[in-house]
Every structure is written in C-alpha cells, then in structure tokens.
C-alpha cells in the first residue's frame, strides 16, 4: 500500500488528501437520494430533478475554474472546492424542500466541477514528468476510498434512522475538512509565465482561451468525453441488466463491483506505468475500445441462459470491461497531461472535464432508455460505439504530437519557476 500512496513528501500528501476525500464520496453517494426521499420526505422525481439540473448547470464552470487555477495557483481553487463540499454536508441537515435541495446540489456540483481541473493543475506541478504515473496511483486509492466509504454508509443505511443518515452526512463533512487541512501542507504554487509568442511564432502571448483553440485537444476531448460513458456502465447499467434481464442471482451485482475494484487496484498502476506519452495514450484508447466491445458482447450473452452460465459470463464480461476501463483512463491521463502546456494545465483539464461531464449527464438516457430497451442488441451497440471512438485514438495522438509547440515551458523550467517564487520542490519538500 505504501507504493500506492506515492513517495513521502508532497506527492504522498496530495494522494492521501484525495484518499480521505473519496472516503467521503463513498459515504455520501449511497445515502444522498435515500436521505432526501426517506428522511426529508421529497419525492423521487424531485430529487432526480434537483440532481440532474444542478449537474447540467455546473458543467460550464469547469473551464473557467481551470483557467482560474492557472492564474492564481491551483491550491487556492482546490481549497475553495473542499470548503464548498464541507458546507454541503452540513447543509444536508437543514434541507426541507425542493428549492433548498437544489441550492445545496448546485453547490455540490459546482465544487465537483471546479475540483477536477484544479486538482489536475496541482498534480502537474507536483508530479512533473511523473504526473501520469501518480494519477494512476491516485485512481487506485480513490477506488479504495470509495469502497471504504460505501462500507461505512452501509452501516448507517442498515440502521435506517434519521440520526444515522445525519451522522453520515457529518462524517462526509469531516472528510472534506480533513482533506482541506492537508492542502495547507502542499506548496502554494504560483502561476507559470506564458511564452512571449504564439505557438505559430507570431508576436503576443497565447490566448487565455488557448485550450478552446487547440483543435487536436478538442478532438481528443470529444472522443475521450464520449467514451466516458463506459464509467456509467458499471454504475447504472449492469445492476438493472442483472436483476431485470437475466437469471443471475441478485448478489451478482456485488460480485461485479468487487471484481472491478480488485482489478483496478491490482492493474491500474502496472498498466498505467507503460502509458506515458501522447502516442501511448492513442494506443491505449484503441485497446480500450476492443476490450469494451468484447466485454459488452459477453454481457449481452447473459440473457436467456441458466444462472450459472450468466454468472460465468458476468465474470468474463467484468474482466474485459475493467481492462477496457483501465486502458481508457490511462489513455486519458496521457492525453490530458501530455498535450497541455504547463502554464494552462487547469484550462485544458477544464475543457476535458466539461465534455466528459456532459457525456455522463447524457449516459442514463442512452444506457437505460435506449440500450437496455434493446436488450442484448443494445449491449452490442454500446460496445460498437465505444470501439469506433477508441479506433480514432492513434490518429488524434499523431495530430496532437504534430501540433505541440516546440517552445512551450518544460518541466525543468516549471521547477525553476517554483524555486524562484519560493514554492517547495516536489523532490525536496518532505512532509
């Protein structure tokens, strides 16, 4: 576990802070809808509407939040997002109607949307040329954190009283406060200087909307964002498929989640360590497409077969889907840390986050409303869609490599800037 939490110093502090925060995520996600329906007394339709509207309205905040992290430093923006989430947990105790719920969920969704690009910018400064590898480690501990939080939430759900739910909401708040406190131990990185010339050599500093002008990165964002629906296959599609369309036992849903988590913990860092460059990222997306298609095909065969066969196909399908997931996220790490210039990492991360957020918002309607209504054919359709997207990965990678400016700030220059402004170096700052 020590290696998963990175080397001692600022890297480990950042990873541990993320781990604690994701424990809170694992606590709040399972109870949020239950609390507002069972304890507050809102209808399922009201809760669903509040969650959907707040999520959609928060998507555009990702890009300006990333740009702000580039301008004032990522630590300040991250602190604001953890403060926002801390307030969300406390606010749960006071929600009494739909409009109060909508306000709380708006704060939650906005904090989440802003945290993604800010944490990406912080990771680029902390990790340097090892940012992709550290991001893989973060994903492992995040999975462990969510699993641990879910176990804690399960206890409160089993007790099933207003007090137990409120204690869990406060426990979520404590995890966010603890994560916020850890950020004080990270360097307060100052903004990086922009080049004096445009990428094409013309005079003038690059546009503050450089990410929106980078066509190769926008192409990646559209492909990577659309492929993000693969995350929702496990979260919303598999449980409904198992329970309503197959003869597999109900506990097979738990098997799927446990197997996914175990494989991510065992393989994410090992596979991710080999996917570092933009070219590697393109290849990883292609491999993800093939694995996801095969996984969807295995799932499609579960309908109409005996329970034991359905369970066996579920295991095969989950192995393939998880491998596809690991290659997909490793590929996105390579693109999202390899293509942006260091001084605009937050802005680029914000663009990628906004597109993937939109795709995830549309995923329930696509996966539940369209794919599952078609049964086994729907699974094949989802797999084919993901394969077609993945096959574009190598071409986008070549485009990205070809269009990267040769004069952008290097990691060595970044370290020099951090040293000159008084920020601690990742190599020397010991926690």
Q: State the separation between the terminal residues, measured CA to CA.
A: 18 Å
Count, helices: 17
CATH architectural designation of the largest domain = Up-down Bundle
Structural class: mainly alpha
Oligomer: single chain
The CATH superfamily of the largest domain is identified as: MFS general substrate transporter like domains
Count of separate structural domains: 2
**In percent, how much strand structure appears in the residues?**
under 5%
> Helix amount, in percent?
over 70%
CATH class of the largest domain: Mainly Alpha
What would the CATH topology of the largest domain be?
A: Growth Hormone, Chain: A
**Largest sheet geometry:** none
Rg over CA atoms, rounded to whole Å, is 22 Å
Q: Count the E strands.
A: 0
Query: Uncertain runs with pLDDT below 50, 5 residues or more?
Result: 199-205, 409-413, 419-431
Q: Looking at the structure, what is the overall shape?
A: globular
Mean pLDDT comes to 87
Write the layout of secondary structure elements.
Elements: H1 10-40, H2 44-58, H3 62-72, H4 74-91, H5 98-127, H6 131-159, H7 162-183, H8 210-213, H9 215-227, H10 229-245, H11 252-272, H12 278-300, H13 307-338, H14 345-371, H15 376-391, H16 393-403, H17 411-420
Helix pairs in contact: 1-5, 1-6, 1-7, 2-5, 3-4, 3-5, 3-14, 4-5, 4-7, 5-6, 5-14, 6-7, 6-11, 6-13, 9-14, 9-16, 10-11, 10-14, 11-13, 12-13, 12-15, 12-16
